Amino acid sequence: DGALVLPVLRHLLRYLGVGTAKRNEILTEMQTRDQNTFILPGGVAEIFLSHRREHQQQQSRPYDKPLPNTQTIKAKRYGLMKLALETGAVIYPVFVFGASDMLDQLTPVEKKGGSRSSNSKDDGKVTIRNLVGNMMETLSRKVQGGLTLFYGQYYLPIPHAPQLSMVCGNPIYPVEENENGNDTSMSSTMMKNVKGSKMTCRRVENPTTEQVEDLMERYVDALERLFEQYKEEAGYPNETLEII
User: Fold this and answer.
1) 112-113-119 Cα angle (round to 5)
2) Which H or E run contains 241?
3) Are 109 and 48 in contact (CB under 8 A)?
4) Rounded CA separation 66/238 (Å)
5) How far, rounded to the nearest angstrom, does the alpha carbon of residue 198 sit from its chain's CA centroid?
6) d(C-alpha 71, C-alpha 50), whole Å
7) Exposure class string for 49-68: b at 16+ Cβ within 10 A, else e
8) pLDDT tens-place string over residues 33-77
9) What pLDDT, on the 0 to 100 scale, is given for residue 118?
10) Pick from 212, 211, 241: which is nearest to 228 by CA?
11) To the nearest 10°, the Cα dihedral for 177, 178, 180, 183?
12) Burial (CB count within 10 angstroms: exposed 0-12, middle 13-18, buried 19+), residue 77
C-alpha cells in the first residue's frame, strides 16, 4: 500500500495493473472489472524471510557441493481462502524458482522453525542483523510497504541473473465436485459469475472454519507437490520448502 501513495511510482504500478491486497479491491477486480487476479500472499513477512542461496556466494570455490537450503514462504493466508469460498474463485497455485536469488538482503529475519541452511553459523543466535531486520519489518508493517536494505551485483541495486522458472499447478476448486452443498438445485460445481462473464465455482455465503481449513490444506499440499515435482528440473535439487 505504501508504494501506491508515492508520486510517479504509483502511476507506474497502476499502469502495470498492480493493486493493494485489501478485500474490497480484490473483490472489485474479480467481480466488477471481471479480471483474473494474481495475488502474492507473502506480503511484508515474506520479504524479510527472503535470502539468496548461500552456496551461490561461494561460486569461487566450485569444488564445494551446494549447501542444503530451506526456502521459507508465507502462504497461509486464511482470509484469502475464505474469500475464495465466498466468491467461488478458482485458485491456481504458482511457484517461482530463483526469485529470491536475484538480490542479497542486508537484514533478513530468521524465524523460528526456518533456517537458511543446515550449516548456518547463526542458528539459535541473536545477531545485530536479525535485530535490525526485526525493526525494519515492524516499521514496514506500520507504513504498509517493504522497507529493506538490499544489494545485487557489485554491491549495487543490480539484480543477479539466476535461472528463473515459474511453474503452475492444477486448478483448485473451493467447493469440490463431490461435495453435497446446501443448494440442492445446483447440479454442477461450476456456475456463471453473478457480475461477470467468467465461470466460477459454487459460492459458500458463510464458510465454516472447517471449510476454510480444508481449502488451506489443499492449497498448501498443491504448493508442496508443485515444488517437489519441479525443483530438480529448475536447478534446485537440494532445496526444501517450508510454508508458514
Assistant:
1) 105
2) strand 239-243
3) yes
4) 7
5) 24
6) 8
7) bbbbbebeeeeeeeeeebbb
8) 767 888 888 887 788 888 787 544 444 444 455 556 778 888 889
9) 43
10) 241
11) 20
12) middle
Residue 241 CB coordination number (10 Å): 18
Q: Which residues of the chain have pLDDT under 70?
A: 1, 34, 54-68, 110-126, 177-199
Is residue 145 within 8 A of residue 3, CB to CB? The reply is yes
Is residue 231 within 8 A of residue 102, CB to CB? The reply is no
CA 27 to mean position of chain CA atoms:
19
- The identity of residue 37, as a single letter, is T
Q: Is 132 exposed, middle or buried (0-12, 13-18, 19+ CB in 10 A)?
A: middle
What pLDDT, on the 0 to 100 scale, is given for residue 117? 44
Identity of the residue numbered 1: D
Look at the chain and count its residues: 244
Which residue has cell 548456518? 120
| Burial of 142 per CB tally in 10 Å (0-12, 13-18, 19+) | exposed
Please give the pLDDT value at position 113. Answer: 46
- C-alpha cell, 11: 502511476
Tell me which residue of 109, 111, 157 sits closest to 137, measured CA to CA. 109
Contact 44, 21 (CB under 8 A): no
Q: Which ranges of the chain would DSSP assign to H, the alpha helix?
A: 9-15, 23-27, 43-47, 78-87, 128-143, 209-230
pLDDT of residue 35: 73
